[in-house]
Specification:
Blueprint (H helix, E strand, L loop, with lengths): L1 H17 L21 E3 L9 H5 L5 E6 L4 E7 L8 H4 L7 E3 L14 E10 L6 E4 H11 L7 H10 L24 H9 L2
Antiparallel strand pairs: 1-4, 2-3, 3-5, 5-6
């Protein structure tokens, strides 16, 4: 029975000489482990606005709003509902659009401060005015497909727009014609133009 008493005495002396084991949290930041999951943060340059993070969020802590009038898609994270599970980062199609940071001290009295947002320009159908998707997402798909993307007029015209090779966009007509196939159109309008004789 003497060994446990000697061990406890050794631990007490070590604690007196080295100081307390606990961290001085408010005064000094706590060292975080490498795989720590903190606040999710959007990377404006890498995020394409696809909404995969919104679809994968288990606590429904994200909002996705397509503002057609302003021509933007807004994705907002409500950090007061976020559980820092990392599903948004794991399901990001670019693997860099949203990352979990080391920031975890989110205490505040104003819930308005607990929001992280990103806005992306929308691509609108030239025939019916429906939302096709964010421009950055369409560009990302065109880059991933490479030469195969030229089979889709919407991807082709968006890529040509980036190169400033596309001329003026024709004004939408009242009725779809076969020539409207080579315009930026949604899948429904593209199907109608394909079926026209």
């Amino acid at each position: 029975m003497r060994l446990p008493k000697l061990r406890e005495l050794k631990e007490a002396i070590t604690a007196v000489l080295r100081g307390p084991y606990t961290a001085r949290f408010p005064a000094e930041p706590t060292p975080l482990p490498e795989a720590f999951r903190g606040q999710p943060v959007f990377d404006e340059d890498e995020c394409v606005g696809c909404g995969a993070c919104y679809e994968a969020c288990p606590p429904d802590a994200m909002d996705l709003v397509d503002d057609v009038e302003a021509g933007v898609r807004r994705i907002t994270i409500h950090l007061d509902r976020c559980i820092f599970c990392g599903q948004c980062e794991a399901n990001c199609i670019t693997e860099k659009g949203i990352k979990l940071s080391n920031h975890y001290d989110l205490a505040t009295t104003d819930r308005g401060e607990l929001r992280e947002s990103v806005e992306k320009a929308l691509l609108i159908c030239e025939s019916c005015g429906e939302v096709i998707g964010p421009r950055d997402h369409v560009r990302w798909v065109a880059e991933r497909l490479g030469p195969l993307g030229f089979a889709n007029p919407t991807l082709l015209l968006t890529a040509m727009e980036d190169l400033d090779a596309a001329g003026g966009v024709p004004t939408p007509s009242a009725h779809l014609r076969r020539g409207d196939k080579l315009r930026i159109t949604c899948p429904k309008c593209r199907q109608v133009t394909s079926l026209l004789a």
